[in-house]
């Protein structure tokens, strides 16, 4: 059985496929046989974040790849040699298939097994995130310890696709008609609101900025089908996740490890998009006033006892009554 998996214009990514890269880059990507950590910035939307707390062993054995388009490459402030900025190897991508940078970002996000055909495991992080933990620790925590092949965090707030769709419309994430059409299609395919009846499934809505996976046929099939939904409908991958997951789970015993979003925040830190940083830089710094002196609780301020005005007035009156009179008589 053949399953279509992105790259409409060609069978292999890299040349004339809508996601073109240099031969040297493709060769390097094929040499990655272990773990790959990947991210992407298109449309100069974010600033490259350097991972922290990475062991020397990980730096020597893990492939770190950052995909950029020509606009992002021209915008890079950091000069780099040998196609590297810090631990990231920069891969320039040309001939992008979509005008929407977010949709283009779904290609490396969901199709890493096609870009790195010999990699065994991958960790995807959105361009706005800073990795602050060693990738091997993340793989151990969310895949190996759980005997899982795919892990993604739940949305921090929403569990229901219908609620997520309304939130997307309210925030203007995509045009309402397209979102309505997509959700109605999934509803006809059997999508129902999330409830406890779906347990042990804990959520229908992921926080898709991080994906941890083993590159095996079943997880590869899942991300291929997931990408096809993003290509067919809206770029809001949270809306299509559960339908694809449930279709595969109905025919196999494959499951997804959906962990708490607070756990995700332990190993990645969210940064501001570049346009937000520029806006913050334009704002005037807030006025800083010195704090008031501390109040000791015994009527004194700053260690000096404060005497009330009423008491001073009483003291003056009392002193006038008890002042010794001086006689002016003649002795």
Automatic annotation (TrEMBL):
Region (Disordered): 289-331
Alphabetized Pfam families for the sequence: TOD1_MUCI70
UniProt cross-references to InterPro entries, sorted A to Z: TOD1_MUCI70, TOD1_MUCI70_glycTrfase_dom
Origin: domain of life: Eukaryota
Biased composition (Basic residues): 308-331
Domain (TOD1/MUCI70 glycosyltransferase-like): residue spans on this chain: 1-273
Protein name: F3H9.11 protein isoform 2
Organism of provenance: Hibiscus syriacus
């Amino acid at each position: 059985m053949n399953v279509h998996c992105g790259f409409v214009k060609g069978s292999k990514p890299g040349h004339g496929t809508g996601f073109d890269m240099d031969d040297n880059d493709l060769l390097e990507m094929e040499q990655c046989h272990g773990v790959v950590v990947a991210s992407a910035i298109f449309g100069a939307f974010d600033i490259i974040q350097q991972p922290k707390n990475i062991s020397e062993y990980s730096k020597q054995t893990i492939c770190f790849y950052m995909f950029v388009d020509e606009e992002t490459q021209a915008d890079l402030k950091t000069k780099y040699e040998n196609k590297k900025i810090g631990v990231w190897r920069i891969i320039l991508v040309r001939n992008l298939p979509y005008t929407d940078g977010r949709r283009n970002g779904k290609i490396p996000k969901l199709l890493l097994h096609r870009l790195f055909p010999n990699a065994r495991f991958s960790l995807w992080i959105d361009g706005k995130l800073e990795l602050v933990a060693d990738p091997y620790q993340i793989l151990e925590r969310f895949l190996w310890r759980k005997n899982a092949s795919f892990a993604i965090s739940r949305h921090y707030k929403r569990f229901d696709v219908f609620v997520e769709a309304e939130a997307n419309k309210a925030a203007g994430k995509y045009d309402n008609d397209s979102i309505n059409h997509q959700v109605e299609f999934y509803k006809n395919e059997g999508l129902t609101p999330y409830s406890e009846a779906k347990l042990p499934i804990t959520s229908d809505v992921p926080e898709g900025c991080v994906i941890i996976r083993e590159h095996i046929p079943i997880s590869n099939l899942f991300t291929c089908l997931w990408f096809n939904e993003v290509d067919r409908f809206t770029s809001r991958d949270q809306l299509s996740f559960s339908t694809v997951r449930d279709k595969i789970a109905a025919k196999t015993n494959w499951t997804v490890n959906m962990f708490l979003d607070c756990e995700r925040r332990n190993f990645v830190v969210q940064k501001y998009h570049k346009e937000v940083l520029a806006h913050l830089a334009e704002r005037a710094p807030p006025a800083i006033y010195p704090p008031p002196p501390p109040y000791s609780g015994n009527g004194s301020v700053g260690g000096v006892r404060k005497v009330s005005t009423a008491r001073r007035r009483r003291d003056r009156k009392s002193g006038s009554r008890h002042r010794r009179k001086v006689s002016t008589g003649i002795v």
